[in-house]
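chain below, 396 aa
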Amino acid sequence: MIHRLRLKKDADRRLKAGHLWLYSNEIDIAETPLKTLEPGCQVIVEAAGGKPLGVAYVNPNSLICARIVSRDPAVGLDRSLLVHRFNQALALRKRMFDKPYYRLIHGEGDLLPGLVIDRFDDVAVVQLNTLGMEHARDDIFDALEKVLSPRAIVLRNDTAGRRLEQLDTSVEVIKGELSGPVVLEENGVRFETSVISGQKTGWFFDHRVNRAWLNKLVEGKRVLDVFSYIGGWGVQAAAHGASEVVCVDSSAAALEAVERNAVLNGVAERVTTYESDAFEALAALKVANEQFDIIVLDPPAFIRKRKDIPNGERAYARLNREAMRLLGRDGLLVSASCSMHLGADRLIDIVRGAARHQDRHAQVIYEGHQGPDHPIHPAIPETSYLKALGVRVFRD
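prediction:
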């Protein structure tokens, strides 16, 4: 039996504009009580007058109580639709990239809300972030098998999104075997990473284009990579000619991976690591009178919820101020944020304020975003989350 979900009057405006989310306060619960629906089931969404608008899966216990998966009321989330969406997504990635290392499925951006799949050649890492996608688990794996037939599939069900949906967390290899790290290539540089224990899926493909921009400017420069993880920015900088790179991270395991990746690319003699809290490291480097030509700031999200905005903005401001103290007279700062709730204009304002605090001038010479394997849904501002500024910081 296919259940219905009736919207209140005028609550269909966002859906008609292309949005995929429905909130619980938009549902006509007198006509279609949310609490009577089985969490994770699929429903036909109807306008207030009864016109079918598409198919969604529901979670009555979540603020986002339903997510559209198809505009055709006759097409639900099943293996057939998943194969179709996977092929659509794959066609885009093949058009954009010449090697099989990328985000294959980016949730709403690929019209599959709650699903993330990263591809490391013949290894796929899957995140099922919502109850609806959890219910489609078997169909997802079947569709992935048909479209890619990967050697190994890793399920990284350890995300914050699952906790919000009141789902259990776990990590498991559900196909094949993985006896060690996987190898990926980005911008001509090779990396080893753990897709089992690494952050997120093991890699952050979203900054690929921004790193490529910086790679053109690093030759002969001394580079500081703060929040380095396993060397995405720093090792690439060394591989593209930086004279010295210092990678700072609080994780010993991440820095050990930096060292392995530096060896893998033949740049170990130009890459050093510094295990420390980022703010403490910046202060210690200043005391030691260190200076750098280029500094990269790529922190985790300081703003996860709207209520975090004031404290988060203060943290970004402090981070940028402390970094600028370590730049030479005419230096380059890459300041990034993956906080969806921090607007690009606010990051620019934070960088401006940090420069003025140090009595320096700032020129924004680059504005970067997430790469094309993280497509932005034009009706869903939340899918545009990544910011990266290239800023010349100089004195008169």
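The mean pLDDT is 96. The longest strand covers residues 327-337.
thats it, cya
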